[in-house]
C-alpha cells in the first residue's frame, strides 16, 4: 500500500485524528452549552453526530498512538477496510448534521426575527458550533479520502 499523508499509524494521521477530536468536542461543547439548542431537531442531531465523530476519531487516534509507539504498520487490508467504512459513515453523518444545522441558523437569523427578539436563544453560539462542526468534517473528509485511496491501492 502507498504511504500517504494522513495514513493510519503515521504522525500525520494522528494529527488529523486529533484535530477531528478537538473540533468535534468543541462543537459539541459549544452547542450543548448554548441555551435553547433543543428547540431545533437539527441542533440535537448535530450534538449526536459530533459525539459519534468524537468517539470514532478518539478511538482511531489511540490506535495511531499505539501503532506509533510499537512501530507497527496499520496498512493491513482488513484495518483499512474498517477505517474506510467508519470514516465514510461518520463523514456523511457529520456533513448532514452540519448542513441541516446551518440551514436552521440561516432560517433563524435571516428569515425570522427570532434571534433579534428572543433572548433565550444563543444564536451566536449556534453559529460557532456549526462552524467548528464544518472544520471537523473537513478534517474527516481528508481522512476519508486518504483511506479510500489506500483501500483502492491494495
UniProtKB/TrEMBL annotation:
Q: Where does the Casparian strip membrane protein domain lie?
A: 7-139
Residues in a coiled coil are: none
Q: Does the keyword Membrane apply?
A: yes
Q: Where is it localised? A: Cell membrane
Q: Name one Pfam family in it.
A: CASP_dom
InterPro entries named among the record's database cross-references = CASP_dom, CASPL-5
Q: Does the keyword Iron apply?
A: no
Key words, A-Z: Cell membrane, Membrane, Transmembrane, Transmembrane helix
- Membrane topology field: Multi-pass membrane protein
The residues that cross the membrane are: 21-48, 78-109, 130-152
Cellular component annotations (GO), alphabetically ordered: plasma membrane
Cite the PANTHER family for this sequence.
Answer: CASP-LIKE PROTEIN (PTHR32021:SF24), CASP-LIKE PROTEIN 5B3 (PTHR32021)
Q: How does it assemble?
A: Homodimer and heterodimers.
**Which family is annotated?**
Belongs to the Casparian strip membrane proteins (CASP) family.
Q: What is this protein called?
A: CASP-like protein
Organism per entry: Coffea canephora (Robusta coffee)
Amino acid at each position: 500500500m502507498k504511504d500517504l499523508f494522513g495514513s493510519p499509524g503515521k504522525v500525520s494521521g494522528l494529527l488529523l485524528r486529533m484535530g477531528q477530536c478537538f473540533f468535534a468536542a468543541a462543537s459539541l461543547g459549544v452547542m450543548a452549552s448554548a441555551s435553547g439548542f433543543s428547540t431545533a431537531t437539527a441542533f440535537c442531531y448535530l450534538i449526536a453526530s459530533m459525539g459519534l465523530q468524537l468517539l470514532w476519531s478518539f478511538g482511531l487516534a489511540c490506535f495511531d498512538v499505539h501503532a506509533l509507539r510499537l512501530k507497527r504498520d496499520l496498512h493491513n487490508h482488513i484495518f483499512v477496510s474498517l477505517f474506510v467504512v467508519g470514516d465514510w459513515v461518520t463523514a456523511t453523518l457529520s456533513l448532514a448534521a452540519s448542513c441541516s444545522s446551518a440551514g436552521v441558523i440561516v432560517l433563524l437569523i435571516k428569515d425570522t426575527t427570532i434571534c433579534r427578539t428572543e433572548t433565550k436563544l444563543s444564536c451566536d453560539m449556534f453559529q460557532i458550533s456549526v462552524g467548528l462542526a464544518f472544520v471537523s468534517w473537513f478534517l474527516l473528509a481528508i481522512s476519508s479520502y486518504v483511506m479510500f485511496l489506500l483501500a483502492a491501492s491494495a
